[in-house]
Design a protein that fits this description.
The structure holds 2 protein chains of 2 kinds. Chain A is mainly α. Chain A has helices at residues 12-18, 20-64, 82-88, 91-124, 129-141, 144-154, 161-166, 175-202, 207-215, 220-248, 252-257, 267-277, 281-305; strands at residues 66-67, 77-78. Chain A has a single domain, classed as MetI-like fold (Orthogonal Bundle), CATH 1.10.3720.10. Chain B is α+β, with helices and mostly antiparallel strands. In chain B, strand 12 (251-254) and strand 13 (257-260) form a beta hairpin. Classes of the chains: A mainly alpha, B alpha+beta. Chain B: One of its GO terms (molecular function) is ATP hydrolysis activity.
């Protein structure tokens, strides 16, 4: 929030001249009123934030510090960090964590490469620009669960066109192939989003810069790597941040495609299974808090270490 | 270094617009040529075609005797300076200047030596480790120049390189550019919409309008002998005055009195197909306060009296604006120039800009007697825009002897 300071009113000038103390109080009163107004103006938004985010987060943390299984409500008690020890020493948690990490890293990397290609195509297309852009965005417009079901049918032996085409077995019943299909579904669905974010970055590269590079003797590839990518870096980092945070919470595709079978659960799946299906509020909340902390750590790394700026706050003066 | 030849070069865009039409231009080795004209006249497109940033629709472009129509910009060995400077924001000044050399795969020591030398010429040495974001406009402009000169290319192409600078710095950089070009002796094509830059910088000036060349020549020649209305109106600041002139009884009736017609013009008018209405052009400096003119000079001109509208004292001289009765001159060229200047030429009736001596005691609101030089008058055909007084020994000697 920025509070614009008003110019000193003419009436205040003689007062300032008469005594420094008097002038000072007059000014600071003015400032104080402004500050108060500022707080009042953002109070509604702050209140909504507290209600919809801070309270649930606080409540999960509170739950995570208790033994609380709805099947045994009588045994509820405060046990400190014991739930965390249980989860962090559990083999299933680390398997799910590994699966989530793998999906995150692979899908984001592939999406970045494909998204960049798609963004370049959308940016450079001269004829039928509207159609090209619309077509490219269709996957992103389809509800994830619906898309996931269509992938499931496609890979189901007997009925699915892809299963019959590529294998004799049932790919969704084996770990490696299931994970590959989950990642494929994720990539198919979210590459357009990546492309959209990158296209905004491409628009930031001045045409003159590319012209200068070509007269300076750069090939198309050199123009891309030495001029476009560095200029686009802020946009790329924002896109990566968004997608990494999103990918780490992967849930619906796994839920529909494998239901977490064959050790394909993500951490979100695991938390869901414990919290909703297992009714273990303590352990489930602990997992939620751990996911929250991991996501916060990822965001921290991006913002502090790579210098990612929120869209719109980039002024071109940052290092 | 090399010469550049444009042989009937045209540019048609896919939507059918013709940006450049049959441009013939020979630029000698080491020459400094300015392309000037109002926006949309095709000057930048022409430059981009020389650079290879735009395809050539028809015609041939030769650099150093070699046809380069189909060569990529990077194979033409030319350096370009952009209006936006186009510095790479992620690189320091040194890296920016070294970029073309690194792409050319020169060794590190040579690159450093060349960059240091160019930096010294442009006084950029203390700024070498800064990023473009931390430089002033003038410094960025110099870095852009530095990036062009380090490579010692066959030619420099400059696309309005000074337009983003403030007025004072622009004048200063003008001399820098001029000195640099003379020092290096590299063929230079310079695009600008500013006629002052065109007049002060180039060996030769090419005036363009609507995709074709209007006139090519040294600045003074364009100023003294404009081939048509457009050139006459474009070159000079404040621009030439244009008055409606009706031919009758062997005289021209104008808002500043009757002007006698010279022998050659009379013959041309008598040929029959000449128009009965002409446009008379006269530059502001060819007027003088009648009180300050000696008898000898007085005989070479004529006088008129008109109400003074506005007086602008410049110190060295005075710009005095007069309101004149009668209709103002109209022609397609003049309308176009007015539109480009973003204003009506006269704003209603005919008006006159004069540049009088600083000693003149002229005051706003009074009626003043003004002398003008008959030898400096130009006559234009309003239909074709052609300058009828062009090919005489003196600018308009045949008009003299009133």
């Amino acid at each position: 929030m920025s509070v614009r300071s008003e110019p000193v009113l003419p009436a205040l000038v003689p007062a300032q001249r008469a005594g420094r103390r008097l002038g000072k109080t007059a000014l600071s009163e003015n400032k104080r009123a402004e500050r108060k107004l500022g707080w009042l103006l953002c109070a509604p938004a702050a209140l909504v934030m507290v209600l919809v985010t801070a309270y649930p987060i606080g409540y999960s943390i509170w739950l995570s510090l208790q033994r609380y299984d709805l099947r045994f409500p009588d045994q509820r008690e405060f046990i400190g960090l014991e739930n965390y020890v249980t989860v962090l020493t559990n083999e299933f948690w680390w398997t799910a964590f590994g699966v989530t990490m793998l999906i995150t890293v692979v899908t984001v990397a592939v999406e970045l490469a494909l998204g960049m290609g798609l963004a370049l195509i959308m940016h450079r297309t001269l004829v039928g620009r509207g159609i090209v852009r619309t077509a490219a965005l269709i996957p992103y417009g389809i509800v994830t669960v619906v898309a996931a079901f269509s992938w499931r049918y496609a890979w189901t032996p007997g009925t699915g066109y892809l299963a019959n085409l590529f294998s004799d077995g049932a790919p969704l019943t084996e770990r490696a192939s299931s994970l590959a299909i989950v990642m494929l579904a994720e990539i198919w669905k979210t590459t357009p989003f990546m492309a959209l974010l990158l296209m905004a970055g491409l628009a930031l590269v001045p045409e003159d810069l590319l012209k200068a590079a070509s007269t300076d003797g750069a090939t198309a590839w050199q123009r891309f790597t030495r001029v476009m990518l560095p200029v686009m870096k802020p946009a790329i980092l924002v896109a990566l941040l968004f997608r990494t945070l999103d990918a780490f919470r992967v849930f619906d595709n796994i839920y529909v495609l494998t239901a977490g079978g064959n050790e394909t659960s993500s951490v979100s799946m695991l938390a869901y299974n414990n919290l909703i299906r297992g009714l273990n509020l303590g352990i489930g909340s602990t997992m939620s808090v751990l996911i929250f902390l991991t996501v916060a750590a990822i965001a921290f790394v991006f913002v502090k270490l790579f210098g990612t700026a929120a869209p719109g706050s980039d002024d071109g003066e940052r290092r | 270094m090399a010469d550049i030849v444009l042989d009937k070069v045209s540019k048609r865009f896919p939507d059918g617009t013709v940006a450049v039409q049959n441009v013939d231009l020979e630029i000698a080795d080491g020459e400094f040529v300015i392309l000037v004209g109002p926006s949309g006249c095709g000057k930048s497109t022409t430059l981009n075609m020389i650079a290879g940033l735009e395809d050539i629709s028809s015609g041939e472009l030769r650099i150093g005797g070699q046809r380069v129509n189909d060569k990529a910009p990077r194979d033409r060995d030319i350096a370009m300076v952009f209006q936006s400077y186009a510095l790479y924001p992620n690189m320091t000044v040194r890296e920016n200047m070294a970029f073309p050399l690194r792409l050319a795969k020169l060794d590190r020591q040579t690159i450093d030596a060349k960059v240091d030398e160019a930096a010294k010429v442009l006084e950029l040495t203390p700024l070498l480790d800064r990023k473009p974001a931390n430089l002033s406009g003038g410094q960025r402009q110099r870095v852009a120049m530095g990036r062009a000169i380090v490579r010692q290319p066959k030619a420099f192409l400059m696309d309005e390189p000074l337009s983003n600078l403030d007025a004072k710095l622009r004048v200063q950089m003008r001399t820098v550019v001029s000195r640099l070009q003379k020092q290096l002796g590299t063929t230079t094509v310079y695009v600008t919409h500013d006629q002052t830059e065109a007049m002060t910088l180039g060996d030769r000036v090419v005036i363009m309008r609507g995709g074709s060349i209007q006139q090519v020549g040294p600045p003074q020649e364009l100023y003294d002998h404009p081939r048509n209305l457009f050139v006459a109106g474009f070159i000079g600041s404040p621009s030439m005055n244009f008055l409606h002139a009706a031919v009758s009884d062997g005289k021209l009736r104008t808002a500043i009195g009757d002007v006698p017609i010279g022998e050659r013009i009379r013959r041309e008018l008598e040929a029959g197909d000449a128009p009965r209405e002409l446009i008379l052009g006269i530059r502001p400096e060819h007027f003088e306060d009648a009180e300050l003119v000696d008898d000898d000079t007085r005989r070479r001109g004529a006088e008129f009296t008109a109400p003074v509208d506005i007086v602008e004292s410049m110190g060295s001289d005075k710009y005095v604006y007069f309101t004149l009765e009668g209709e103002r001159a109209s022609a397609a060229e003049l309308e176009e120039l007015a539109a480009d200047a973003g204003a009506d030429f006269t704003g209603g009736g005919a008006s006159l800009v004069t540049r009088l001596s600083a000693e003149s005691t002229v005051r706003e609101g009074e009626d003043r007697r003004v002398w003008f030089n008959l030898e400096k008058i130009h006559l234009f055909d309003p239909g074709t825009g052609r300058n009828l007084t062009l090919h005489e020994g003196r600018a308009s000697g045949a008009l003299g002897g009133s």
